[in-house]
Amino acid sequence: MRKAIYFCVAGILSMLAIFAFLLHPRGRRRLYERFGFWHVPPGRYVWLHGASVGELRGVLALEEWIREHHNHPKILLTSFSITGIETFQDRADVCRLLPFDWLPCVLFALRGIAIERFYFGETEVWPTLFGVLRKRNTEMILVNGRMEERSFVWYQRLRLWFGPALQSLTKLCVASKEASERFTKLGVSVERIRVTGNSKYDREPLYRSDIERRSRRDSLFQSHRIVVTLGSIHPEEELIWLNALLPLRNSFLFVLCPRHLEKRDRFVSSLDSLGFVSEWYSCIKSQALPVKDETEVLLCDTFGELEMFYSVSDLGFVGGTLVPIGGHNPLEPALYGIPICVGPYIEKIQYEVEYLQKSCAITMLCSPDDARKLLERLLAKDEELMSQGVRAKRVCEELRGALKREIAFLEGR
After folding, report:
1. What is the C-alpha to C-alpha distance for residues 396 and 335, in angstroms, rounded to an integer?
2. CA 45, CA 71: separation in Å to the nearest integer?
3. Considering the domain boundaries, does residue 18 fall inside one?
4. CA 278 – CA 284 distance, rounded (Å)
5. Which of 182, 201, 220 is a domain's end point?
6. Domain C-terminal end among 201, 218, 235
């Protein structure tokens, strides 16, 4: 009965999802893969999965060890995000979108291929997929496991379905003690869980040379304005910042990096309504031109540029925190020793934010007034604010080491 109910519900949701995906250009791309039309060449694979770019980065930290430990198998990489698989397509033999968690879709996707082991990141739990892999005696490893309070409440309510899925996992490398306790309460044995931290933070910044960063900044921003990058922002978050910028617009240049590029027109509408002069980054990039002197907001409309903009900024805002999304990676700007700030919605990044708060390395804000005061402090070169960036970079260094702990646990040490 339990499986029959989930089968019916998953089938209905999969059909309804068609309409949601068809409404967006990004959703229509490779939609057939979500229904199991993978056409993967037969063979033996190790499967790596992450919901989006950040989760995949954490799982792929294990790539070198996986290839050696599993005697160089083929790598199957999946994500629920089209951006995720396109970003890392050169790291795998096969890249596909994860199928809907409906039995026909899962079975159709996996036909003819053998999965030696399944590594997945953070919070992805799919009862049907896990059930199919369990019947195939496939080991399932959770990497960088998280369990936010809201997810925990839902898993408890739906324990009849998610409990067996979680209990079928071979090992769980979790990011925090709180996550470990929540997984245990959901029925996972303590022996299969170890707190290892998050391996996606076990990396050096992409732009390590101070000289190169300064040169890039000088060629891109030829004026001497203060640069603030609004990273991975969602609609409505920009309004708080733009209203804060109005009385200070001559001193700052904002770089606006949308989380979803297909929503960029909504940001343009906000800029136009407030009278800001904006410019598309793709236009100046294609012609190797600097930002115009009259430009007040640079709109990033190309993929993979966020870290570059953080590296040449004076302040970084982490999006998804001024609207109820839960937040994105706050350690990406912290890698470059710049002051960072977030809003009140930090459920998905609570561990990282609390760690930064303990080191007085992050600023919290809720309103345009908070944002304006922060900009004024930045303009005045407030010493305490400047030192926050130094402390944030130190936090990044302290959080490294998860990869070694994960490998030790996976090797039985």
Report:
1. 6
2. 11
3. no
4. 12
5. 201
6. 201
Residue of 360, 365, 363 whose CA lies nearest to 395:
360
Residue the block writes with tokens 């029925």: 187
| 144 shares a domain with 246 | no
- Residue 247: predicted pLDDT: 93
Per-residue tokens: 362? 């992050």
- Starting at the edge strand found earlier in the chain, the sheet holding 297-299 runs 278-280, 297-299, 252-258, 226-233, 315-318, 340-342, 363-364
Give yes or no for a contact between 143 and 58, defined as CB atoms under 8 angstroms apart. Answer: yes
Please list the ranges in the chain whose pLDDT falls under 70.
1-3, 7, 9-11
Alpha-carbon span 110 to 106, nearest angstrom? 6
In a domain, 13, yes or no: no
pLDDT given at position 129? 94
Query: Letter for the amino acid at 1?
Result: M
Strands 226-233 and 340-342, bridge-based pairing = unpaired
Each residue's pLDDT tens digit, 25-71 = 777 788 899 999 999 998 899 999 998 888 898 899 999 999 988 88
CATH of the domain at 170: 3.40.50.11720
- Domain containing residue 355: 210-398
Cα distance between residue 339 and residue 14, in whole Å: 42
Contacts of 55 (CB under 8 A, 6+ apart): 79, 84, 121, 122, 124, 144, 200
Establish if 7 belongs to a structural domain: no
Rounded CA Rg of the chain: 22
Bridge partners for 297 per DSSP: 254, 278
| Residues in Cβ contact with 84 at an 8 Å cutoff, skipping those fewer than 6 apart | 50, 51, 52, 53, 55, 56
Residues 195, 191: Cα–Cα separation, whole Å: 11
In angstroms, rounded to a whole number, what is the distance separating the alpha carbons of residues 79 and 188? 25
Number of domains, the chain:
2
**CA–CA gap between residue 150 and residue 361 (Å, rounded):** 26
Q: Which amino acid is at 247?
A: P
Q: What pLDDT, on the 0 to 100 scale, is given for residue 10?
A: 66
404 lies in some domain: no
Q: How far is CA 17 from CA 10, 29, 297, 385, in A?
A: 10, 14, 35, 45
